[in-house]
Structure formats: C-alpha cells, structure tokens
C-alpha cells in the first residue's frame, strides 16, 4: 500500500512538472493510442502478412512453403492476368470521367433548382443506399432477351434488333459498367452540391456586374474553386472502379467475369484464385499488385491535381 502511494505521488509530481504544451501532447497521444493500435491490427498487420503470403506456396491444407518471387513471375506470364488487368483499367478510365462529368452536370443544374430540390436530390442519392447485389440483379433483368428484358423489349418495339449485352465479349463490360456508374452517381452529386454551396456568392455577383458570361463564370470561377472537391472525388471514384466486384459477380453469376473473362476485374480474379482454386500465395501476389496499382494511381492523381 505504501509503495503504491509513493508511486502515485511520484507520478503526480512528474505530471505537475510538465509544461502545458507537454501535457497537451500526452493527452493527444493518450486519445490516439487506441485508434492507432486498432488501425495497426486491422490494416498494417494484414498488409504485411499479405506481402509475406505472396512469397509462399499455400493451399490452406499444408504449411506455407517459401517460393520467393515465383508467384509474381507466374503472374507476369499469365495471359488471363493481363486481360483482367486491361479490364480493370477500362473500368477506371471509362467509369471515372463519365461518372464525374455526369455528376457535375446534374449537380450544377440541380443547384439552381429551388422547387422540390431536396426531393430530387434524395432521388439521385437513393441508388447509393441500395445494395449492389439487388441493383445488379435488376439490371441483369433489364439486359435479358425478349420478352423478359426491358431494354431489348423497348428496342424491338421501335423496330431495332436485340442486343446481346451480357452475352457479348464487346458489350458486356460497358453493360456492367453502366449500373456501377449509376450506383455511385448520387454520392458524387451530393458532394458536388456541397462544393458548389461552399463557393462564396460574392464572386458570382462581381462577375455578373462585370458582364461575364455563364460559361466564363463556370470556367474561371466555379471549376477552379471546386478543385479540392474534384480531387477528392477523382481519387475516391478511381479506387472504387479499380475495386469493382459486386456488379460483375452478380450480373455474370453464371460465368463470373464472363463471357471469356471479358468483364473480370482484378478483385474478382483474386477472389476466384483464393476461394475457388485455394491458391493463396498466388492470390496474395495478385493482391499485392492491386495494392501497388491503387497506391500509385492515388499518388499520381494527388500530384497532378494538387494546388501548385
């Protein structure tokens, strides 16, 4: 009891001897300790473990055996991987700009609407709240042949030929990408609206007094001041399209990633390698490649879009 009392007194004297700035640092690290430990266990440890597994041969039935860079060499020689890699970048380079242009156009005009503004905004945001699996199956129904598919039924009613959509190696990827863009559109519209509302109205009033046209205001005031919002959405959307999975898996459930791997993204390939083939080392190598791609693209985008 005496020893505990002495320790408490020593701790109290030590605390009293600290300056205000030092006490603030101690309190800050005290509050940050738990989230840092949690983040380290949830994020950093699995990441390091993934790098380690990528250098092994492991099928869950036996102990992992070290193979060095053999999984990465196998990956570089795999034609399916390169097709999947191409598909993944097509999702990125088509999905990101199309979704952002659509979202900004909608937000720009919706910002000027006053009648039922909240209701219209909620309608755009509703798909973002809907589960990806439910949306994928609804869109899959849209793409079915006559008399089931809504889109082909409309085409037939105006005398146009039916389209194969999900059964075509050329149309399947855009057909899968369309609902993915639609699903994230509401979130992007809301973020763009917040960015537009944050721009001071005095800039617009001064420009209109000077007789500046609407297009010039958009180009010289709105877009430059929306740069932080655009940077956030570009990075956020790019990561989302590079990690696309739900729409592809559910819309091509008979042949996931088909036909002939025409829609398969890298995340789906990782899933199939790990949980269908049980080739965990090879799947981990694919995961490392995806991690490096995500990291590189995010850093490049931040570098190109940041304020100079």
SSE sequence, one letter per element:
HHEEHHHHHHHHHHHH
Low-confidence stretches: none
Q: Approximately how much beta-strand content do the residues carry?
A: under 5%
The first-to-last residue Cα distance is: 62 Å
Helix content: over 70%
Radius of gyration: 26 Å
Gross morphology is: flat
Q: What average pLDDT do the residues reach?
A: 86
**How many individual β-strands?**
2
The total count of helices amounts to: 14
Q: Strands of the biggest beta sheet: in what spatial order?
A: 1-2
Structural class: mainly alpha
What characterizes the major β-sheet?
2 strands, antiparallel
What key attributes describe this structure?
two-stranded antiparallel sheet; 308 residues; mainly alpha; single chain; 14 helices
């Amino acid at each position: 009891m005496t020893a505990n009392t002495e320790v408490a007194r020593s701790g109290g004297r030590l605390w009293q001897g600290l300056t205000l700035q030092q006490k603030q640092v101690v309190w800050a690290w005290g509050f940050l300790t738990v989230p840092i430990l949690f983040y380290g266990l949830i994020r950093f440890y699995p990441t390091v473990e993934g790098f380690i597994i990528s250098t092994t041969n492991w099928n869950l039935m036996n102990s992992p055996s070290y193979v060095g860079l053999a999984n990465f060499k196998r990956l570089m020689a795999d034609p399916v991987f390169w097709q999947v890699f191409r598909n993944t970048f097509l999702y990125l380079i088509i999905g990101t700009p199309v979704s952002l242009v659509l979202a900004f156009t909608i937000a720009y005009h919706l910002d000027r609407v006053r009648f039922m503004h909240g209701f219209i905004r909620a309608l755009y945001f509703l798909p973002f709240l809907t589960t990806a699996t439910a949306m994928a199956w609804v869109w899959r129904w849209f793409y079915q042949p006559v008399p089931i598919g809504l889109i082909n039924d409309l085409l037939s009613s105006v005398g146009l030929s039916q389209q194969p959509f999900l059964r075509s190696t050329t149309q399947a990827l855009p057909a899968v990408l369309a609902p993915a863009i639609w699903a994230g559109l509401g979130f992007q519209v809301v973020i763009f609206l917040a960015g537009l509302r944050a721009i001071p109205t005095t800039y617009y009033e001064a420009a209109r007094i000077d007789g500046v046209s609407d297009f010039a205001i958009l180009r010289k005031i709105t877009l430059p001041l929306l740069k932080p919002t655009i940077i956030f959405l570009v990075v956020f959307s790019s990561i989302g399209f590079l990690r696309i999975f739900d729409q592809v898996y559910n819309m091509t459930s008979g042949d996931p990633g088909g036909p002939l791997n025409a829609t398969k993204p890298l995340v789906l390939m990782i899933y199939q390698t790990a949980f269908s083939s049980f080739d965990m080392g090879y799947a981990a190598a694919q995961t490392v490649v995806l991690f490096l791609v995500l990291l590189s693209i995010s850093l490049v985008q931040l570098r190109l879009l940041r304020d100079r």
